[in-house]
Amino acid sequence: MLKIYNTLSRRKEEFVPYDKDNVKMYACGITVSGDAHIGHLYQAMIYDIIRKVLVQNGYKVTYARNYTDIDDKIIATANRLHVDSAEYARQMIKKIDEEMRYFQVDEPDIWLKATENIDNIIEFVKKLIDKGYAYVTKKGDVYYSVEKFAKYGQLSNRNLDDAKNNYRIENDEEKLNPLDFALWKSAKEGEPFWNSPWGKGRPGWHIECSTMNMTAFGEQIDIHGGGRDLIFPHHENEIAQTEAVTGKQFAKYWIHNGLIKVNGQKMSKSLGNTIVLEELRKKYHPEVVKFALLQNSYRSDINLTDEIFDLAEKHINGFYSIIQKGEERFGLPEKEVEGELSHLVKEALQDDFNTPKALSYLFDRFKEISKKLQADDRSARDDIKEIISAYKILGLFVNQPKQVLDFINNKDTIPEEVKALAEKRWQAKQNKDYASADAIRKEIEEKGFAVNDHKDGYDIVKN
Ligand SMILES: [Zn+2]
């Protein structure tokens, strides 16, 4: 039996989907206003794992994620860079998709983009106006009237007065209530816009998710996920919008992951402590990052420090060394191996996706295997294969030992100038400037290194 902590009821509940074994799951994706960071990776990774746990437990899952590709911040960044905001969003999405693949996070079944759903969004807003939940201002903005929705505040567990006092809001004197939120924003000078019955404008953020959910799944979904910072107002507003239109409960289970802090502080541009994926991938192997992040319950905040990554790297290095030894000594079985450990891991994950518990078994297991290898005990090969089979679901032990060990043990010995050259060559290749890419490759080889390209990037190795 699968148990999930539901933010809506504020307790752990048995998971029972609306429609037998079919699960509809939606997780809020990235607003592509800049480089993806570890918080984005963490969220994508968590919902990928949740999807896989559901599948392991016999459910047929359809998992959708969105990209918010139209937004104030995207427009601001694009303007600053003097590029078209749609083109900027497209390029960022391409880059982020590639980074997620590098970190071995699987794609959802359905990708949704706000800009591809503008007509549906306009239809949704019309319905809200017709039903009396929304109003149009003189400027051509459309607002949702929170006082019309009796259950407003149920997810975040607050009443309207609390919310009003504790939440900073952009003020607009045309709003009836300061908590009313924009469904449609009239276009300002120099902004991209679409035509609508209310004039030129673009959708608000919250309506995008309600509409894309409806487009992908219809009126009801089983699981809606996102970071805890989205509970209010984003998810509260999604509920208000969708349930006002359908008159039915929207998502049955609301799942929220904790947030990432760096050295005790929130990641922010102003503090300059944001760990972007572009940098992270140069320092740590994807499995090291996963192992570090999954040591925490997905619901609690993670405080990242260098020590956490270094310790994770030490463990992954140790585990993979043992796998490599076993593989060299005995070879590993081709088929999957299931045993007591597989059940323990499955059980831990059935209990609200308890990854720290699932990982806790590894230390003793590897110790035992290590002893068996010393004693030349051939059963070590089944034990290793059982680990590989059981932890695949978390994206661990899915790589060749040599690849992981080489990454960990060579990364510090590659000089910065070689790394910079390799990066320059990669960029040249991306720009289809193959002549420069070849010239830089020769330069790298003269320094005693080689670059090996693969599907999602490259590795640098000593020659
Ligand atoms: Zn959303």
Compact summary:
The protein is of the alpha/beta class and 463 residues long. The chain has helices at 38-56, 72-80, 85-102, 118-130, 160-166, 205-217, 231-246, 277-283, 286-294, 306-330, 340-350, 355-374, 380-391, 401-410, 416-430, 434-446, and strands at residues 3-6, 11-14, 22-31, 60-68, 110-113, 134-136, 142-144, 181-186, 201-203, 221-227, 251-257, 260-262, 265-266, 302-304, 449-454, 457-462.
List the keywords.
463 residues; alpha/beta; 5-stranded parallel beta sheet; 4-stranded antiparallel beta sheet
Notes on the structure:
- The chain has 463 residues and is α/β, with parallel strands linked by helices.
- The chain has 3 domains: 18-261, 3-Layer(aba) Sandwich (Rossmann fold), CATH 3.40.50; 293-408; 414-462, no CATH class.
- Helices cover 47% and strands 17% of the residues.
- It has helices at 38-56, 72-80, 85-102, 118-130, 160-166, 205-217, 231-246, 277-283, 286-294, 306-330, 340-350, 355-374, 380-391, 401-410, 416-430, 434-446; strands at 3-6, 11-14, 22-31, 60-68, 110-113, 134-136, 142-144, 181-186, 201-203, 221-227, 251-257, 260-262, 265-266, 302-304, 449-454, 457-462.
- Strands 5-4-3-10-11 form a 5-stranded parallel beta sheet, sandwiched between helices. A 4-stranded antiparallel beta sheet has the order 6-7-8-9. The protein has a 3-stranded mixed beta sheet with strand order 13-12-14.
- Helix 10 crosses helix 12 (355-374), helix 11 (340-350) packs antiparallel against helix 12 and helix 12 (355-374) runs antiparallel to helix 13.
- It is globular.
- It starts with a strand and ends with a strand.
- The relative contact order is 0.11.
- The model has no long low-confidence stretch (mean pLDDT 94).
